[in-house]
Amino acid sequence: MSNQDKDKKNRRSQGWFNGKGLDGYQHRSWMRNQGRPDDFFDGRPVIGICNTWSELTPCNGHFRELAEKVKVGIYEAGGVPVEFPVTSLGETMMRPTAMMFRNLVSMDVEETIRANPMDGVVLLCGCDKTTPALLMGAASCDLPTMVLSGGPMLNGKHRGKDIGSGTHVFKFIAEVNAGKMSQEEFDQTELGMSRSVGNCMTMGTASTMACMVEALGVALTGNAAIPAADANRKLMAQMTGRRIVELVKDNVKLSDILTKEAFENAILVNAAIGGSTNAVVHSIAIAGRLGVDITLDDWDRLGANVPTLVNLLPSGRYLMEDFYYAGGLPIVMKRIKQHLHTQLLTVSGNTIGENIDAAECYNDDVILPYESPLCTNGGIAVVRGNLAPQGAIIKVSAASKNLLKHTGRAIAFENLEEYKSSYNREDLDINADDIILLKNNGPVGYPGFPETGNVSIPSKILKQGVRDMLRISDARMSGTAFGTVVLHTAPEAAVGGPIALVKTGDMITLDVSKRLLHLDVSDEELASRKKNWQPPEIPSHEKRGYAYLYRRHVTQADTGADFDFLVGHSGAELPKSSH
Length: 579
Ligand code: FES
Known about the structure:
It is built from 21 helices and 14 strands. By secondary structure, the protein is of the alpha/beta class.
């Protein structure tokens, strides 16, 4: 018997398809109703294609077509594909927030992979939460795994100018509130914003996560930037299909790729791309599934000395289509390669160093040279103090430099509803150097950890010509957002963290260079306030079902907001037979 034959006999999928009795009969027979030939069951690699296509996830609206191309590649390499759906997470649709369902989808992915005859998996990821959710689930199984991202939309256009997903919406709303843009023009911008299939084309969370998976080595080189509408995205799908079959034959598991050093590379790359703050919480959650220890301190330590080279919105001015034409992520990685672990193996079969070696830049204004960056310290800073004992984060490249060291009066809001009903009131007592403090938008509080941290600036401040204020919350913010925004404050207000105790008029100091977030209230006064603190009321419809489970088991932002019972992995050993 040849080695190849030996491998075939030992494949995981043979635990289903090689039986001679009732089980084997049922496993094969019912699959044959789709017209499967005998050799479908002979031990060739069975590759799951985990598809997050949904009409309610417009960013992933082209995934059926991509899945077909992955299948072509799998067949070409001698494997057999089995496509399966999982719950999809449409960022712009889901209420209260798609993030609330990330962990649910990760369970869907993990259990579907483990329960079925698969030897390897391709994860079709696009819209923000689909990438971390699928990777978390797959990591808890640890089969050979590759990610194929859906790619960004074409650049948005309005009156001859480029406009970017999310970022320009926030800008336009501020202009309308300041009386600088008409409602009619605002409505017109909607028609040119989302011009093709694909995810947001700013360096928002979706594109950040696509860059992360390329930097981690779980996607092929070039995966992040190819637009969804470009024929090369289909080619990437086909090549991914070919390659996953080889990974199964070589038994290269996800944990062989996603090492501590790989996560360190991803953190370094995030600084260089000016990536989303959401990558912090997602990377910690993914690493947690593999038993890899990634913490807020890693984010602060590693990113601090890496310059931001990618001149894309929201930190810079270009969009993902420009990034692709300039050469994409391999250029960025090549330009910071002195910081990277270039010897690491990737799913391509080559090392990081080999993958990026031949990369050539075609536009130095889109991907800036190392010596003339957009921002010299591009990392995400972690601040701590009596207001955030477990940490809070701030994206330095998207902040106003004059607010990175700031002391001001807190204007505190108990929840988003209170803020929304007050912030545009002319009699609101607020000045440009005050600090907007928003509570109860953390994982437990909202619930679901929404992207509300970059709340709109009050219109009376906008009319003064001011476009940024220091904002502090226990929320996240969209990767497409910008401003001086302290996020993920932990512990959050809803579990009694110090942020719950802040009152309007308290003084707060942020000093990013000292990594400090300090509430100027005595320990005695805080202890007294804590005694009188009551957790927010939970609405009756959230006292059962998934919201109930979520509130009880979600961890705080600094540990990834995963469920406590999902951290770690169980492998992909064959479960008991089904009959
Ligand atoms: Fe899907 Fe932005 S809304 S990626």
